[in-house]
Amino acid sequence: MSWIEKLYRTYENNRDRIADRNDSIPLFPICHTAQNAHIEMAIDGDGNFLRACVISKDDSPTIIPCTESSASRSGKCPKNHPLCDKLQYLAGDFVEYGGEVTLGFKDNPRAPFEAYKAELEEWCSSDFSHPKTEAILAYVREGHVISDLIASNVLHGKATEDGFCRLLREWPETDANKPEVFKLLNGKLNENGKRNPWQAEAFVRWVVELPGNSNSSIIDASLQDAWIGYTENQKDERNLCFVTGEARFLADSHPAKLRNAGDKAKLVSSNDTSGFTYRGKFTEDSQVAGIGFAVTQKAHSALRWLLSRQGKVFYVKSGGQAKPRLAVVAWAVSGADVPDVLADSDDLLGYLPVESDGVAVASGFTAQEFGDRLSKYLSGYSVRLGKTDEIVVMGIDSATPGRMAVTYYRELTGSEFLKQIERWHAGCAWLQHFSGGKEFFGAPAPRDIAQVAYGTRDKDQLKVDDHLQKTTVERLIPCIIDGASLPWDIVDSCLRKATQRQNLPDWAWQKALGIACGLYRYYCREKEEYTMGLDRERRTRGYLYGRLLAVADCLEGYALKLSNEARPTNATKLMQHFAERPCSTWKTIELALVPYKARLGRRNKYTEEMDEIHCAFADVSDYASDEPLTGEFLLGFHCQRVELFKSNQKANASEDEENEDELS
Q1: What is the pTM of this model?
Q2: Please, which of 186, 237, 292, 351 could form a disulfide with 248 given CB 3.0 to 4.6 Å?
Q3: Which residues pair with 69 in a beta bridge?
Q4: How far apart are CA 408 and CA 312, in angstroms?
Q5: How far is it, in rounded angstroms, from Cα 552 to Cα 573?
Q6: Parallel, antiparallel, or unpaired: how do β-strands 321-332 and 354-356 relate?
Q7: Concatenated DSSP letters for 202-229?
């Protein structure tokens, strides 16, 4: 129950954010949910129809009253919402115009409308009635919702041979004057062979224009309070709430729609009366645990709000559709902002200009700058969070459409949380090159690690299976939050991918190289400390062999550039073999360098660097050994490569300055 209690307290600490229009999915008042509405119908206080219109996608999300059953409705006979809903519930003339009710209502097509009307009548006859609900009831009792919508050119029908008007299922795509409702609900067959929603499945919200009331929307605090009061008044008795320890009205069912609007999976559910969810130990589900009605509503609303605001949801394709699976979120119970646990260092820090004494200075990509920026960034958070603020990191996943589980849960103090974030980003820090010119010092995101470790080449893309990506991210979360060791199979996969230079696009190989180096550095952090720059004092076999390969690659690459030849170097082609049999492969690479050395002259910076590296081998047996290299060789390769590129840039800059001086 700990996670429910933390979410409940988060809701209470952020009550000022309820129904905040700045949030894509705001905190909902209890007994309310959100729906994307397609049509808006306006009536007056006496229930007279005024007008109707199709709602744009940007304006469609609407907070509406709901019951415990309708909030997570599903199946063949979905329960109606009490106020706003689809046309099969609101329209008494739905069937007359060719509307098709859901499968469970086929035997009694008027059942959805009658159930909706009966519930609305019960609300209006209670002490919690509201002028807007009474106006809506007066209008729907007349039973001409569909005819009014057709007369307003919101819905569209066609006369049949028997003289009746029937709603059109679809509209020709070639017609430039396609009505607005068909742009939202086209009724076409999709790629799965199933028909898309059509105009008869439109969701309707109300506008009630009352004299002296400037707020005609149903998002009305007085209307929301009336529905909450009415719902709570339906409860019979108070019992022990296992979350708060107080006597409260208990929930009969619990909300869904946590990861998106179509998410039916529940974290708390006990409706399996024929299986073994609780049978065998208890006779009723309420004997297992009782959760307060308001408590579960607020907790689930807080989780939904947090996931949309600062969480990460991973989708998995199933049956041609991408469905939400793993969702991860970190939050402070107080409501304070916290760092994104699944972001890479570039997204986390932003790499905006560093401020020094209030003056913005130029930002470059250096290891020192990364360390300073990470420290300043987390120091800022430590001021806002406080050492003892409660931080929660939570992961949820669903194996089936109806059930969801908490797959990861940790509670930390503010100082512990920031310490773990700093340890991960500092420990995995390396120079990263991503596509689109993105370059930064720091740690990669788990999503990118999964792409490199298990991605396969698809033309110029590197694609990873959705299930593999989700599972890899799930395995990396404890490494970030708990300080657990990196799984070796993930590190090894990245190292192998980085050596397969011939099989990858250049951007993908550079990305793989940076991520592999960062992960290997983190994996070895307890035994060996590697710097992010070239370490000329390091004499280990793997590091030196990596440097040799980098020099050979740059030497041949520079010679090919001078002769305008565009082809891969021998170091590129033999990189994987070099990692497996370094000494014998090096002989092949070095012999192939002879013509390129001659082209550049006997003595140049590349040959001098190569001689220096050869002399650094303290033990000849290390150099002569053909045992496979460890991931350390990639660190030496990358550092040496970056160092040579820097020297080339400085040389080019000096030549440009000399040319300018000569011209002047």
Answers
A1: 0.85
A2: 292
A3: none
A4: 14
A5: 12
A6: unpaired
A7: -EEEEEEE-TT-S--BS--HHHHHHHHH
